[in-house]
Amino acid sequence: MEPGDQPTDYMVNKQDAKGMAGQRTELSLSQIVKEVAQQQHQQTVEAEKSKSVLSNLQAQLFELEKENRAILQEIRTTEKQIYHLENESESRQQHCADLEAQLWSLNANNLQLKLAIQEEEEKYFKFLAEYDKYRKKMLCHKELTNQLESRSPIMMQLEEKIHMVKELKAKKEELAADLMNPEGNIIKQVQGEITELKTKISEMREAINEKSVLLIKEEERHVQLRKEIEVYSFNYGIMTVEVVLVDFSDVHYESIQKWLCGAVDQMSTCDLVECPYVFMMYSQRNTDNVNNDIQSYLYQLSDHVEMPKGNLEVLVQSSFAGILYTVKRKIDEQSLSIIKVIVSTERRATLELYIEQLFTAIYKFTFKTLVIENEEEVKLQLPVPAMKEHVLLSQQTGDIWKDIWAFLAQLKGDMGEIVVLQSLLIPDLFLHGFTTRTGGISYLPGLNSLNLFSSRKRRDPKAVVMENIRRLSARAGFNPKTFYLAKVSHGNTVWTLGKLEPEYYDGIVTNWKGVTIAAPGADCIPLLFADSVQQVCGVAHAGWKGTLAGVAMATVSVMMTEFGCSARDILVVMGPCIGPCCFTLHQEAAGEFMKIDTSCVKGANSPLPSIDLRRATRVLLERGGILSENISDDSTSSECGEVTLCTTCHPDMFFSYNRDGNNFGTQIGFISARELAVNLPSRAEVVL
Q: Residue 9, Cβ neighbours under 10 Å: how many?
């Protein structure tokens, strides 16, 4: 190639190269576009696949989250259950610990009970030994008495007469046999002898009756002599002391030991039983550690002195009434009654007032008064006629009463709640009812629990009976300060409130409003009378003697004469009493009831006929003008059940003299007009 031609060829080649390059470029771009399109298509396909996968993954994620939430909820529920189970486990562990503590406590109590049972068994065997000893003495005494009676002239004559009567009876039988013999005719011969024998027999009977009367009088005289001997022995300090009470309540701590020694000296001068009960008493208002120390101190001192310790007890309480009540319950368990009290001069009047309210005349108290001299020497104070006795101030008396009432009020009632029986016959104008024996605080057998009468012959004291009446008044809704109980004598005397009060009376009538009158009964009939026209009410106590004396109609008569009542308007309700199922009397008394009405007596020919007091009372009332439908007896029921139940047949509900003997309690029938009275006379205490 020429040097000059080089550019031209070069240009041609360059253009060819460019053309080829352009073709190649066009081909590569189209390929690239295709490839890109293919790639985009693939990417689109892959994107669609990715979206599908993503949606599947999102759905799976949503399900996983849902499952996760459910799992979390289950975990929380499980955690709560675990928490509750842990709490329950802890509480069960605590309960097990408590049960284990209770088990230990029960074991301890069981041991204490075992010890107490052993102590009671020892006391029982000791009492049994004493009882056997006493029984042997009584048998010896009975044998000696029988010997003395058999040797007495009256008994010897009586035996002779009895022997003679037997012989006469034998002869009479022989004569009767002879009279039946058809072969012999001795009727005329023996008539005179029979008449003579009858005369002798009647004379013998009269003689026997006279001797029997003399014997009864002699026995009564012996009983009276025994009582006089007991009174003489008591007055002159000859009786054997069974219980000793030593009062430390007003003794300073420094003088307690000397006081105890003085009391022991006085005990040594008394005629004590073999193992007397000794109670050392200490009462102050604060029962703190000081008093507890005194209790321990008194026990320690008793170990260093010569004194009876077999039945020694130290009683420390804030309430002196509580102390004496504890003493009374313990000596009542043993039926003890001869009590010696060792007390200071200043405290004697206090103890006498407590004893008057918490004991009865059955308990025989004698006092030994000690004084502390200036040199702190304890001496017996001899009785001086000219010396003035310590008199209680009104505030001291009030404090004693408060102590007694506060203590008795906190005692729990026995045998359940107080139950008052009511009759449907008496209208709501009158408050009325008949008591049962439940809900009171009397604890003695035969008297428990709502005894409402205190007798000198029984052991239930005034304060306990007054507390029973207070509880009854709260239950029934009457005022105990205007409460009047009949002072019975088994007669027909009736007292009208407002007039002079008789010494004894078996009936009460009144037209005072807000005043409660009551009649007692423990087999006798408590009768309630009500006249809603004149607003007059009455009560009566009708035993068999009072029924024969006409106490029911005597009460009706006073209502008619004093207040203008009409017999047709008077309602009469009979309360719980002994029924004919349980009540019998001797022939003479039964004959008096036969005169009232033959239906009042069953088995009239028996030695002890049965008597229906209710029937006799109804007959007498109807004869006196009381309408039959206005009398409530054992056929009438009330909202609380039958009112006129047999007291003897229901020992869980009523007291009964016939069933329980001399140590019996008393229920009452009571009634009052409901309207409030203005300026009515009130009693400071319940009349018993």
A: 11
